[in-house]
Amino acid sequence: MNQPKKDQMLHITLMDGMVRGLLLTATNTVAEAAAIHCTSPVATAALGRSLMGTAMMGAMLKTDDASVTVTIDGGGPIGKIVCVADHDSVRGCVDNPHLEMPLRPDGKLSVGMAVGNAGRMSVVKDVGMKNPYVGQVQLYSGEIAEDFATYYVQSEQTPTLQSLGVLVNGETVLSAGGVLLQPLPGCPDSVISELELRSPLMADISRELCYEPMEDLAKKWFDGLKYVVLGESELSYRCNCSRSRMERALITLGQEELTRMIQDEQEGAELTCHFCKKTEKFTQHDLIKLLNQATRG
Ligand SMILES: [Zn+2]
Questions:
Q1: How many A from CA of 57 to the centre of ligand 1?
Q2: Structural domain count of the chain
């Protein structure tokens, strides 16, 4: 993979720290995902929103080697969406990237219909402890941003305002961005009401980002709310797969499955990474070596 272009995430607070937030511009990251998976417009939007929601969750992890995996399985025609993020990178895949759907009556992409709302969103946070943290919620709308917000409220007891948007024109990603705001415990109801009142301003974030950079939008959205940028971090679409990881995956298939592969696949096996589409070829001889390792345990 070529060196992907980086995107920017701003870490902010409002009202002297009573509200924390993240502002993400992720046009390059979503464009990279669309190019790798050759996504249709509705799949670009569904995968793009999921990537950004997961990346923001990743940016809130406490350590650099921690990671989070979000699986959205709503029972809709697009199938399952899986995204993995750490503090500065994200990757993802979708079962049916070429899905075409008619537009909604309001002219927007039918992300909710494509994803469906008859299933679950699950979150697995690997923070280096023995057991990962696992949370799961019923999907609320399949529109992704509302589903992430529901997850934070129900599974982490954190009230959250989340907005995620991807603007596409055919195969081109014009812009992509997201906002996450979380009032901390003790934040007065008046501040929360004010944020709810202003949330429609942030709803069309991808369109707004076509005209103004995030910093300028934020100054308008949060006028009078003591908006402070604490810092910024980078985000890019990045996969950490490698031949040795694939070898380990093959070994974990076990002796029986490897033996079957060696017998059935005279030409060896070709493995493709779900996230970056990189392929690695394993000859029959390679597979026999891996079988020997699997046998030794
Ligand atoms: Zn990969």
A1: 21
A2: 2
The CA 272 to ligand 1 mean position distance, Å, reads 8
Any domain includes 1: no
243 CA to centre of ligand 1 in angstroms: 10
Is 175 in the same domain as 193? yes
37 falls in which pLDDT band (50, 70, 90)? very high
CB atoms within 10 A of CB 168: 23
Question: Model's pTM, two decimal places?
Answer: 0.93
Same-domain status, 214 and 259: no
- Between the CA of 214 and the centroid of ligand 1 the distance, in Å, is 30
Same domain, 92 and 206: yes
**2 occurs within a structural domain:** no
pLDDT at 45: 97
Enclosing domain of residue 274? 243-296
The CA 37 to ligand 1 mean position distance, Å, reads 12
Question: What mean pLDDT is reported for the chain?
Answer: 94
Residue 156 zone, left/alpha/beta (φ > 0; ψ -120 to 50; rest) = alpha
Q: Is 67 exposed, middle or buried (0-12, 13-18, 19+ CB in 10 A)?
A: buried
